[in-house]
Write the structure tokens for this entry.
Amino acid sequence: MKASLFAFGVLALLAPCASGLSSGIFAGDGKTIIQPPSYDKSNLQKGDAPPTPTRVERITNAERLRRRLPLLPPAAKRSNALAPRASADRALLPRASFARRAPLPRASCTALPNSIGRLRIHRSDDDSFLGYVGGIWDEQNSYTYSTIADALRVQLSPSSGDGPLEIIAIDGGPDPAYPYLGAVGGSAGYNFNAKQMGYAYLAGTGHTPANSPPSFNAGHSIQALGYQGPAESTVWSLDCLSLQVTPQWTNADGSQPPTSVFFDAEGGWLALVGDFGEFTTTFPNEGAFLVDIRFEPEVSL
């Protein structure tokens, strides 16, 4: 009998912990706010750490002309002349003839007809259309998807589509104080490396520079509920052919691991994630699945 009472007592102690396991900002009681790991109120008074230098991409002269940058100097040509002995050896071998392949046609991007539009949500596994990013918050002030009637109207900035870019809610969206469609570090962690618990809610945020670590000073829509996770806004890139919008989260150390978008069916919110397998293992009952976001430009009449 004592053993049974002891076991019951242990279960009673563990029950609050189990019920508190949640990927959203609320604990199992639906009232308590779960702050993200390593959150410290002093972070709100400190300036953000300077962005970690990112790898510099080599830009072609054609791209430099488009951006009105100085051209690169001509590269020195490598000599193809053979050494005397090599020439003599090759002269003894029969020459092979190779047919030159015609260059494959390359698809070229065209300017978007309009940088204003809506964001379509498709399941990644079967490409089924679910709806549009909605203009109304879910219960934790995060973005979800809805019908065309409630779709959020957005503008891509810069309108040229070069990334990283920001997505701005037209007329401010649900909260004009935070007009950027950005990402807020998750309550269970926001380190997006493999085998790490890292995810971030899609929400209204303030501005953060491209390729910079998550900011505790940018502000976001979920703060109204008491949640103090850090935010990033300039996290998007646009494929000019498919019009797919893809995210790139930057970790606190400046690293940029692979990033995907998913929908949490239990919580009803859209989010970014690093290791999706780690998320579903930790939260197997959330009904989460990966999604793709595609920009749908408005058609001018």
About this structure: The chain is about 15% helix and 25% strand.
